[in-house]
Design a protein that fits this description.
By secondary structure, this protein is an alpha/beta fold. The protein has 12 helices and 18 strands. It is globular, with a radius of gyration of 22 Å.
């Protein structure tokens, strides 16, 4: 037996709100029979509130708090370091291209981000890349594939622009060919019924719908000046949610405005994919925030997007409004999950920006980035917590993050995923 002395080796928004909407019988862990049987000693393990010193065993890639009676291959002395769940990125789109893919994956893992929620992708483009994901020594990714939108809605303009630039060479020759792969047009109930089976045939892990500027839907729907700047008819959101839930699929809504937020919450979506009003600077209604909490809805932060307006005169006003809305959601007890929607980045900078806003405690931020972001990415898997029978995926830190969050990713000394030590 080898022994190593490894010297280098919620947020009160409880993520239990996420599990209230799930069938507990459907939760599962992914065992990994190829992992080592380990015994970890002298570590301080995060229990969701604080750290406890304990001895932990890893068997078949799962966490065990009692000796499973199997001879250990390895004993790791954690030397009084701190063990937390891995981080997650609850909103991105940067894993559907082979360009610098290895670099992107390495950046995720280097920063301790094991789980990524991919909120739209072209399945025909991403399918050859799936071999890189969802394996013990890499990142795990859940996919929505094509988002639902209206004719002329987001992201059709984006897909058309990329087609013209040649990004889809060899895949598509016209914008019409991209439907179902890169977007699905739903303009009425008939469209929804006719296209639903085709949507499901792409095997999405969840349904993504685009709800943009719904308060001016009638004004925008036939106006070509708003090409790419509009979304679904707000009257269709509830029927979409009902169809998705009947298939056991959660629904994530892209929103832009406080009114979009109201429509989505009222219709029963499971997740708001963006903090609203990053462009216009309006307040979320308090009653909508309270309803979101009551329904166990998750809001993904994406505050980093406001930095795209950093040179505009209204930037400080937008920052103030973001802070106001985050404080309202926090006070209302809404579950917040950390996600960036920054194509050339990941949730690391999102975490730093949220920290600089001084809205959340260290405990709240830690849970937003670990438990909450992971739970909304893989809601039925036993990941994101350090509990008996959960997947043995975690990070070991030199310092206590509840005392000091400075350079948290630089303090990672060990990364273990499903019982596999990552280099």
């Amino acid at each position: 037996m080898k022994t190593f002395n490894t010297i280098v080796l919620f947020i009160f928004f409880s993520s239990s709100a996420l599990s209230q909407n799930l069938d507990e019988k459907a939760t599962y862990a992914r065992p990994n029979p190829d992992s080592q049987h380990m015994k970890l000693i002298n570590g301080h393990w995060f229990n969701g509130t604080t750290f406890e010193q304990k001895t932990v065993w890893l068997s078949d890639g799962l966490i065990r708090f009692k000796n499973p009676g199997i001879a250990e291959d390895t004993i790791l002395d954690l030397a009084d370091q701190f063990v937390i769940p891995p981080f997650a990125e609850a909103h991105n789109h940067n894993l559907e291209s082979s360009y610098e893919l290895d670099k992107r994956i390495a950046s995720y893992l280097e920063n301790g981000i094991f789980y990524v929620k991919h909120l739209s992708s072209i399945k025909k483009r991403v399918t050859p890349l799936l071999k890189h994901y969802n394996k013990p020594d890499g990142i795990d990714v859940s996919f929505a594939h094509a988002p639902l939108t209206a004719s002329g809605g987001h992201p059709i303009a984006l897909r058309e622009r990329y087609l013209e630039k040649g990004y889809f060479q060899g895949l598509f020759t016209s914008i019409e060919e991209i439907e179902f792969h890169g977007y699905v047009r739903i303009d009425n109930a008939t469209d929804l019924d006719k296209k639903w089976d085709s949507i499901l045939s792409f095997a999405p892990d969840f349904i993504k719908l685009n709800l943009l500027y719904s308060e001016t839907y009638e004004e925008r729907k036939n106006d070509t000046a708003y090409f790419g700047q509009k979304g679904l008819n707000p009257k269709l959101i509830r029927p979409i949610v009902e169809k998705a839930h009947a298939e056991g699929l959660r629904v994530s809504a892209h929103v832009e405005t406080a009114h979009d937020f109201h429509v989505a919450v009222t219709a029963g979506v499971d997740e708001i994919a963006h903090l609203p009003e990053l462009k216009n600077g309006r307040a979320i209604a308090k009653e909508d925030a309270l309803l979101a909490q009551k329904k166990g809805l998750v809001v993904v932060t994406t505050v980093s997007l406001v930095t795209k307006r950093q040179k505009r005169p209204e930037y400080q006003d937008l920052l103030h409004n973001i802070t106001t809305n985050l404080k309202l959601l926090k006070a209302s007890g809404v579950t917040l999950a950390l996600g960036s929607d920054m194509y050339n980045d990941n949730s690391t900078e999102e975490f730093r920006m949220l920290r600089n806003l001084n809205v959340f405690s260290n405990l709240e931020l830690l849970k937003m980035w670990t438990e909450n972001a992971t739970a909304t990415t893989f809601p039925r898997r036993k990941v994101g917590r350090l509990q008996e029978g959960y997947e043995a995926s975690f990070l070991v830190l030199k310092t206590n993050p509840l005392a000091n969050l400075d350079a948290i990713t630089e303090n990672i000394t060990l990364r273990i995923k499903q019982g596999v030590v990552l280099n």
